Amino acid sequence: MGALDILDESTVAVQNVTVRYKTPADDDGARTSGRIARVARAALGQQPQVVVRALSGISFVARAGEQIGLVGQNGSGKSTLLRVIAGLEKPAKGQVLAESTPVLIGVNAALQPDLSGAQNVRLGCLAMGLTPDETAEAIPDVIELAQLGKAIHRPMKTYSSGMGSRLRFAIATAANPHILLIDEALATGDAAFKERSEKRMERLRENAGTVFLVSHAAQTIEETCTRALWLNHGRLVLDGSAEDVALRYRKYAWALAKGKPDRAKAIIDTALAEKKATSVLIEAPVKPLAHRPRHARASGTLLRETGDQ
Ligand SMILES: Nc1ncnc2c1ncn2[C@@H]1O[C@H](COP(=O)(O)OP(=O)(O)OP(=O)(O)O)[C@@H](O)[C@H]1O
């Protein structure tokens, strides 16, 4: 297949992204390093380290109107991919380009523990790129959604973790982002808040150009997404319709649950063999988009996606 110019509709391009974490491990965990290295480390009193490959060479292009589900086992790299798209994590290799600032629901706001909830709402909105006028307009709505009562005027450091999460969630929704990233694991709060937040999420999804949703439930992906990416040990196993990916992922999870690792591996191998190789070519930078200035970052770019590698 030849190259396809998709500038008009692309919202996020993920180009060959690799993320590694260097983390401390015990001696057994670090056994892969050489004997000399181990002896030297012991002599220097250093703790052994291992490198975790959280994402390996991930490439895809997301388009306006898509709701993209991310599925995969625990530790497969789903949250890391969301954080990289949100710009919260820098990949060791590769790059992410977005036509506007992606907002990760729940954790984006860098809040100040000594300031009150209300002061943090203002700060959070401005930090997400809202103008002072937009911020003033958004504040009552955010405070209403968070429903913290008089506690909204207390310093955030006095909040319970649930109260903090509610405020962060409410602030994140104020941006009405064109690229929305939702990590289901972040969903929090009591029943009443859940219902209010679900309604808000629905509205956000309707307005967003592209939604990314992390979920462990294949059914949620099937019901809410148009497309799905299956990650396994940091690799992209399959990129396809939500129905097809959810079906195969379900079969894989079932095989694992039934103690049939060979069957599970065969499902992954088949998916990998069928997957269309995608490479994202970035041809020439263009000016950031002018029509959504508060979201635009220096990322407007001519993209090409090819399927012939
Ligand atoms: N800050 C970190 N330091 C070291 N390793 C990390 C860090 N964050 C993630 N990892 C590792 O990277 C890999 C991918 O983690 P990630 O959280 O992206 O997986 P996930 O698919 O979202 O998992 P889950 O479904 O359990 O939320 C895992 O092996 C994890 O241990």
From TrEMBL:
Keywords: ATP-binding, Nucleotide-binding, Transport. PROSITE patterns: ABC_TRANSPORTER_2. The keyword Repeat does not apply. GO terms for cellular component: membrane. SMART domains: AAA. GO terms for molecular function: ABC-type transporter activity; ATP binding; ATP hydrolysis activity. Residues 34-258 form the ABC transporter domain. InterPro entries: AAA+_ATPase, ABC_transporter-like_ATP-bd, ABC_transpr_TagH-like, Bact_Polysacc_Export_ATP-bd, P-loop_NTPase. Pfam families: ABC_tran (PF00005). Belongs to the ABC transporter superfamily. This is Teichoic acid transport system ATP-binding protein. It comes from Paraoerskovia marina. The lineage of its organism: Bacteria, Bacillati, Actinomycetota, Actinomycetes, Micrococcales.
